[in-house]
Design goal:
Mean pLDDT: 83
Helix content: 55-70%
Shape: elongated
Low-confidence stretches: none
Number of strands: 0
Radius of gyration: 33 Å
Number of helices: 6
Order of helices and strands: HHHHHH
């Protein structure tokens, strides 16, 4: 295969993979109002599928993801703002449903603890290495020098 064909094949596969997410939303879910549908798609892109867990509900074809997409659209049609829709879904399913969790002290503690432990451990190593006094080279006595020379002679 020539290089342009390989690049075209890779590009085609990439575009096909990107289009798979668009297949998750079925035509019966799509709202008639394009502005509301755009808002629904934006909200759905930020909500995690509880079954797939690494996909948004907009990309997932799981039954629960479909139910959540329908719920989001129902709330938008009822007149809720984007924030109200997200708050409603979080109140029912918990913060885990958010692909990008809201920053709070619990999250900071979760992400900050390993960094704090690493810094404390590094500080301890630095302090401990400075406290350790270097051992001075001990000089052999004449008697030890003689015994060492004799041992080396026996070896050879």
């Amino acid at each position: 295969m020539r290089l342009p064909r390989v690049l075209a094949l890779i590009l085609g596969l990439f575009l096909a993979i990107q289009a798979v997410g668009a297949l998750a939303v079925t035509p019966d879910e799509v709202l008639a109002d394009p502005a509301l549908e755009a808002r629904a798609r934006a909200i759905s892109a930020g909500l995690r599928c509880m079954i797939c867990q690494n996909q948004s509900i907009d990309e997932s074809d799981a039954a629960l993801a479909k139910d959540l997409r329908v719920l989001v659209r129902q709330r938008l049609v009822a007149g809720d703002t984007d924030e109200e829709v997200i708050a409603y879904v979080v109140s029912r399913y918990g913060e885990f449903v958010l692909l990008k969790p809201v920053f709070n002290w619990r999250n900071a503690l979760l992400w900050g603890t390993p960094l704090v432990l690493l810094l404390v451990g590094g500080g301890y190593i630095v302090v401990a290495s400075r406290r350790r006094k270097p051992t001075s080279a001990q000089v052999l006595t004449d008697e030890e020098k003689t015994a060492l020379a004799e041992a080396l002679r026996r070896e050879t």
